Amino acid sequence: MFGSFLLMLSYLSGRADAYSEYFLQTCHSSKLDLSDMVYVESYYFNRIKYLVFNSTYGKFVGYTEVGERLAEAYNSNEAFLTDEQNVVNRYCNPAVRLYKTYGIRFISEPRVKLSLGKPFSDNHPGMLVCSAYDFYPKMIHMSWYRNGQKVTSDVLATEELADGDWFYQSHSHLEFTPKTGEKITCVVEHISFNKSREFVWDSSMLESERNKVAIGAAGLVLGLVVCTAGLLYYRKKSQGWIMVPPAFEFITH
């Protein structure tokens, strides 16, 4: 995910030595344009969740016997469901836009790098790593595309990691089988970008790496041949030498 814009409103009733009930209203979005905004309303009794409304499904779901009865009653009221659904536009979207405008006073653009890594499994011989460094705020979304098609398998992403200096880093891994001419792209979304940015892996880099390995191996073999020839030449020449003890000259005054 791009990370969630999360806004919460809670209500609590009850006493510390008795039963307690509360509910949470949360707004989640993973896109810069807020087109996937989701409103979730969750009800708890003594820390047990018993009823949830999710705007994605447009209905209540019960998690206990009491919750199921309440969900059935609420879902039969079309006007009430419509009002709950409208919270997305009435509350969530305006609140998040306000936060984006005034709540984020410091923004740092991620520095993105593509590199080769060691595969985590034996399913594929290669692995690409898309790394984002020194970004703020924390929310970021990284996805992979192969020849224009989004990749959903063989992808492993890490959580955003704090650098300890207000900045974050994140890494996404794609295991793959190298193919000549293949275009692999890492798409990065961050609030510091006006739109998502694409970082393309050049498949010719793989050929370059193979050439470097081949050249290195050939150089090593040539070095061994030259070294062996030199050693044989030295041994052959040394067999005809006679070691003469050094002469000492005594000078007297």
TrEMBL record:
Residues that span the membrane, as ranges: 213-234
Q: Where in the cell is it found?
A: Membrane
Report if keyword Secreted is assigned.
Answer: no
Keywords for this protein = Disulfide bond, Glycoprotein, Membrane, Signal, Transmembrane, Transmembrane helix
Q: Which SUPFAM superfamilies match?
A: Immunoglobulin, MHC antigen-recognition domain
Q: What is its main location?
A: membrane
Q: Which GO terms describe its cellular component?
A: MHC class II protein complex
Note the topology in the membrane. Answer: Single-pass type I membrane protein
BP terms from Gene Ontology:
antigen processing and presentation; immune response
Q: Where is the signal peptide?
A: 1-18
PROSITE patterns given in the database record: IG_LIKE (PS50835)
Tell me if Zinc is a UniProt keyword of this record.
Answer: no
Which residue ranges does the record assign to the Ig-like domain?
94-200
Gene3D superfamilies membership: Class II Histocompatibility Antigen, M Beta Chain, Chain B, domain 1, Immunoglobulins
**What is the name listed in the Swiss-Prot or TrEMBL entry for this protein?**
Ig-like domain-containing protein
Biological source species? Alosa alosa
Q: What is the lineage of its organism?
A: Eukaryota, Metazoa, Chordata, Craniata, Vertebrata
